[in-house]
Amino acid sequence: MEKLDNIVMYSPKDVSKLLHLGNTKCLELFNSKDFPSIRIGRAFWVKSDCLEKFLSEKHVFGQEENDIIL
Questions:
Q1: What angle (nearest 5°) sits at the alpha carbon of residue 42, between those of residues 5 and 40?
Q2: Distance (Å, rounded) from C-alpha 43 to C-alpha 63?
Q3: Phi, psi (5° rounding) for residue 67?
Q4: Confidence at 7, pLDDT banded by 50, 70, 90
Q5: Which helix (H) or strand (E) holds 10?
Q6: pLDDT tens digits for range 13-45
Q7: Dihedrals φ, ψ of 43, to 5°?
Q8: Nearest CA to 21 among 33, 13, 32?
């Protein structure tokens, strides 16, 4: 987690810990078009307020038998 003034940003590692996801599923989430992540160079980030909004809505992530419902 990084703080820039009043902006809190989460890395995939942070989100993985918060949501109890494995690295692969977390990176798939960050690469999905519905997830509000941004890419800076080779690193992915998500603003904390965007993550909260995303989680407050019902989302189904994945297209296999083991779909993740967020």
A1: 35
A2: 25
A3: -60, 145
A4: confident
A5: strand 7-10
A6: 999 999 999 999 999 999 998 899 999 999 999
A7: -105, 140
A8: 13
Q: Which amino acid is residue 68, in one-letter code? A: I
Cβ atoms of 18 and 24 within 8 Å: the answer is no
DSSP structural state of residue 32: S
CA 37 to CA 9: how far, in whole Å? Answer: 10
CA distance 69 to 6: 30
Which amino acid, 45?
A: W
Name the helix (H) or strand (E) containing 45: strand 43-47
Take residue 45 and report the two structure tokens written for it.
């980030």
